[in-house]
Amino acid sequence: MYVQRLELVDFRSYEAVAVDLSAGTSVLVGPNGVGKTNLLEALGYVATLDSHRVATDAPLVRAGAAAAVIRCLVVHDGRELLVELEIVPGKANRARLGRSPVRRARDVLGALRMVLFAPEDLELVRGDPAFRRGYLDDLLVARQPRYAGVRADYDRVVKQRNALLRTAYLSRKTGGTRGGDLSTLDVWDTHLARHGAELLAGRLDLVNALGPFVAKAYDAVAAGRGAAGIAYRSGVEVGAGDRATLEQALLEALAAGRSSEVDRGVTLTGPHRDDLTLTLGTLPAKGYASHGESWSYALALRLAAYDLLRADGIEPVLALDDVFAELDAGRRERLAELVGGASQLLVTCAVPDDVPAALRGARYEVSEGTIRRAD
Ligand SMILES: Nc1ncnc2c1ncn2[C@@H]1O[C@H](COP(=O)(O)OP(=O)(O)OP(=O)(O)O)[C@@H](O)[C@H]1O
């Protein structure tokens, strides 16, 4: 799979830009702040409907504009597919596939599979559990796009259940008599357990499949200095990990935790509270790993995602944002060997000499608002 053409209108710093790309390696070169990452972010948005940098859409739209458009032509198995997204902050995205409108933006997921590694990924190791949950769920969707629906259903149930608990909590706190009715909570428990079990089963399967790839990738990146291990940490007893057992376990955990949820006015049980534990040797990576180890770990998580998708028979686009400047010469060469065979590899850098010679493919110069092929 590779992106043949990318067009942006009012996306981030770009008023209007178009670039033709090819399979193999492309290096995007330019001084700091000219918009290199913005290009990768746009492609990442098409692949996940999310930015790797911001939680809301407003910053993605060029300052002063009302909406942004990302259009990209993806070539997969010799067939071309045009994907178009219009981002209007505060509203649902509009999307087209092959020029036909689709009902929901998430119907485009799967059209472009991409793994993006960026400096922000340090948060995968050092940050809150939400970063690691996001990593797992994005990969789940990249492998099986139907999980986008599972995730959306689960998020909706948690939101509505939280609203109910919160209204009751506030009503009690203010001594009111209205809004304290929790009679529908049992129904929400059933929905939460059903959708939660599906999401949880998907994540558990994923972590099982991913573990060996993470260990191998860390070993390759860090040259044998420590063994990386991942484990899913759930608030419920996962047993054999099948959906029926998980659904039952979630229902029981919700029943057991109901009084504290009512006391606090929030849903405390379910996959939205789980985490992915990362270890190096016998120690947790979070809180123990050095900066370099954390960075190698984050890179290993992305490379493992890339390798797992390839093992599934999907050849995703691989993008490395500002990676080489962080690495010593040995690690640069090792990484170049690991990623050199990608069907499409997009690399950004401010200093071209940071990129190993083995990766000097097509070269693009990025300057304020423009991009041009330079080789
Ligand atoms: N919504 C927006 N409207 C206008 N400009 C924006 C918007 N969002 C970001 N920018 C501008 O985009 C630029 C950052 O672009 P980007 O992060 O792609 O830089 P970069 O080339 O990757 O830089 P570096 O090498 O430092 O990582 C900044 O100048 C920023 O002001």
From TrEMBL:
One of its GO terms (cellular component) is cytoplasm. One of its GO terms (biological process) is SOS response. The keyword Thylakoid does not apply. InterPro entries: DNA-binding_RecF, DNA-binding_RecF_CS, P-loop_NTPase, RecF/RecN/SMC_N, RecF_2. The RecF protein is involved in DNA metabolism; it is required for DNA replication and normal SOS inducibility. RecF binds preferentially to single-stranded, linear DNA. It also seems to bind ATP. PANTHER family: DNA REPLICATION AND REPAIR PROTEIN RECF. HAMAP family: RecF (MF_00365). This is DNA replication and repair protein RecF. It comes from Asanoa ishikariensis.
